[in-house]
Design goal:
By secondary structure, the chain is α/β, with parallel strands linked by helices. The protein is built from ten helices and 13 strands. Helix 6 packs across helix 8. The structure holds nicotinamide-adenine-dinucleotide.
C-alpha cells in the first residue's frame, strides 16, 4: 500500500484528492488547520496543524511517505487575494519553505507543489483575447500580485531542491479549478462558485438581478475538479520535473459564464456590473505540453461541470 500525505486536505482540491487516492487504495494522511467543511474526510488520518510552523511540518511528514501533495495555502478568489498581499506572501512562504524542507529531511520520495496560473506575467494578460499561456512564458517574471510572486518563488525552490538535493519534485500550475464541495460564500469563494450562488439566490428569491465585478468581459478558462485530481495524480507518476499547466483551454468571459449558469438554473438573469477586483483582463491555458507529457487533457465539459457544481451550490443556498 502506497502512503500519501496531503497538505491542505481540509480544502477543496485536497479533500477531492483524498477521495481519489483512497479509491486507488493509498494510505492517506491529511493535514490542515481545519477539517473539510461539507463532508467527512476520506483520509485514514487527519492531523490538525498549522504548517507555517517548522515543528508541525517535521511531524506531519514523518512516517515514510511515498508521495507528498502540497496543497495547503492561504488563498481565495479575487475578493481575497486582491486585498491580502502581505498575509498571503508571509503565510504561504512559511508553509512552502517548511513543508518542502521537512519532506526532504524525512526522506519522502516525491513531492508535488500546487502552483497557479497567477505566476504568468501581467503584460501577457492585458487583453480579453489573450494568447493561451504556455509554461515557458513565465519569464521574464512579472506576476500580477503577491499570490503569484509567492507561487513563482516556491516553484523555483522546488526546482533547486530537485537539482541540488536530487529530491523528486513535481510542479503543477492550476487554471481555475471548480466543482462541488468548495468554498461558495464568505469572501474567499472563486468566480464559478460565487456566480452559482448568486444565480441560485436569484432563482430561489425570484430576484433576477445579479452583480458582476467590472464589465464582465474579462476572460478565463475553467477546469472541473475530477479532471484536476486525475491530472495531479498523472503528473505525480510522470517523470516531468518542470512546471506544467493543468486546466481547460476553452476561454470564456465572465458574462458568458453567468449566462451558462443561468441556463442550467433555468432562469433569466439581469446582470448589474459593479466595481470590484477583476485580476488580469484575460487568461487561458496552452495545453500543448500537458498533452505531450501526460498523453491526456481535461475532458469534462464546462457545461457538465457547472451542472454538477450548480446543483450542489443551489442545495447549499436552499439548506444552509
Ligand atoms: P483551499 O483554500 O480550499 O485549500 C487550501 C487549504 O489550505 C485550506 O483548507 C486551508 O485551511 C489550508 N491552510 C491554510 N493555511 C494553512 C496553514 N497555516 N496550515 C495548514 N493548512 C493551511 O484551496 P484549493 O482550491 O483547494 O487550492 C489548493 C492549492 O491549489 C493551493 O495551494 C492553491 O493556491 C492552489 N491553486 C488553486 C486553484 C483553484 O482554482 N482552486 C488555482 C491555482 C492554484
Amino acid at each position: 500500500m502506497k502512503k500519501a500525505l496531503i497538505t491542505g486536505a481540509g480544502g477543496f482540491i485536497g479533500h477531492h484528492l483524498a477521495k481519489y487516492l483512497k479509491h486507488k487504495n493509498y494510505f492517506v494522511r491529511g493535514v490542515d488547520i481545519k477539517k473539510p467543511e461539507y463532508e467527512k474526510t476520506a483520509c485514514d488520518e487527519f492531523v490538525l496543524a498549522d504548517l507555517r510552523l517548522w515543528d508541525n511540518c517535521l511531524r506531519a511528514t514523518q512516517g515514510g511517505f511515498d508521495e507528498v501533495y502540497a496543497l495547503a495555502a492561504d488563498m481565495g478568489g479575487m475578493g481575497f487575494t486582491a486585498f491580502n498581499h502581505a498575509q498571503i506572501l508571509h503565510n504561504n512562504s512559511l508553509m512552502d519553505i517548511h513543508t518542502l524542507e521537512a519532506a526532504r529531511q524525512n526522506k519522502c520520495k516525491r513531492y508535488l507543489y500546487s502552483s497557479s496560473a497567477c505566476v504568468y506575467p501581467r503584460q501577457m494578460q492585458a487583453d480579453p483575447e489573450v494568447v493561451p499561456l504556455k509554461e515557458s512564458d513565465v519569464y521574464p517574471a512579472m506576476p500580477d500580485d503577491a499570490y503569484g510572486w509567492q507561487k513563482l518563488i516556491s516553484e523555483r525552490l522546488c526546482m533547486h531542491y530537485s537539482e541540488d538535493y536530487n529530491f523528486e519534485t513535481r510542479i503543477v500550475r492550476f487554471h481555475n479549478i471548480f466543482g462541488p464541495l468548495g468554498t461558495w460564500e464568505g469572501g474567499r469563494e472563486k468566480v464559478p462558485a460565487a456566480l452559482c450562488r448568486k444565480v441560485a439566490v436569484a432563482k430561489l428569491r425570484n430576484t433576477p438581478e445579479i452583480e458582476i465585478w467590472g464589465d464582465g468581459e474579462q476572460t478565463r478558462s475553467f477546469c472541473y475538479i475530477d479532471d484536476c485530481v486525475e491530472g495531479i495524480y498523472k503528473l505525480m507518476q510522470s517523470d516531468h520535473k518542470e512546471p506544467l499547466n493543468l486546466g481547460q483551454d476553452r476561454m470564456i468571459s465572465i458574462n458568458e459564464l453567468a449566462g451558462i449558469i443561468a441556463n442550467i438554473a433555468g432562469i433569466k438573469i439581469q446582470i448589474k456590473h459593479i466595481q470590484g477586483p477583476q485580476g488580469v483582463r484575460g487568461r487561458n491555458s496552452d495545453n500543448t505540453l500537458l498533452k505531450q507529457v501526460l498523453g491526456w487533457e481535461p475532458a469534462i465539459s464546462l457545461e457538465e461541470g457547472l451542472k454538477r457544481a450548480y446543483a450542489w451550490i443551489e442545495d447549499q443556498v436552499r439548506w444552509p
